[in-house]
Amino acid sequence: MGKVVVCDHPLIQHKLTYIRDVETKTKDFRQLVDEVAMLMAYEITRDLPLQEVDIRTPVCPTKGKVIAGRMLGLVPILRAGLGMVDGVLRLHPTAKVGHIGLYRDPETLQPVEYYEKLPSDVHERELIVIDPMLATGGSAAAAISLLKKRKCTQIKLMCLIAAPEGIEAVHSEHPDVDIYVAAVDERLNEQGYIVPGLGDAGDRLFGTK
Ligand code: PRP
Ligand code: URA
Question: Which positions fall inside the Phosphoribosyltransferase domain (predicted)?
């Protein structure tokens, strides 16, 4: 079974509190989400393989370690996933970025796909699917299924906040996928929103309502 890693570094918890706060306006919300994504990227890429290289310091020849040639791909789920892309790219500027457009039908809560554009070598890459809110888990599970249909095998899921229901749903469909979150909240409410959560991530990121 995939693991759930809660990235609970004090800086992440501090910033997440302001992200949740209803008083936080779009500009600060966007900046904080970006910063948390960068901090989480540090944890998510902890297992990247290294290779030894020969270098020279100004003093003498020596050996160093650099990230081995494993290729990374980021797959944000539109729209809200976009808010976490730049933060990850700051640490991994060579990653390619594919996009999957899904929205959650407000009545059925089922994901509806409307866009897909992926790198041509996506199946060769180690992928991080990015979706700030793991609520019912329907959107994330559908995005992962789509990637598996494209023959992708190495997939991690990165979220800001998850409901236990969302974790359960993703892991029952995709037990091979590790989930990285900044927090696991209490539950979903009747409208399928995470409690206490942060409200609608897309609307708060882009100032729509
Ligand atoms: C939100 C959020 C996730 C999804 C999570 O997207 O960004 O993608 O809901 O819900 P789920 O786990 O129950 O599927 P939304 O449909 O609001 O679209 P948006 O990102 O374009 O605002
Ligand atoms: N999507 C959001 O943006 N927030 C939630 O709490 C649930 C789904």
Answer: 6-208
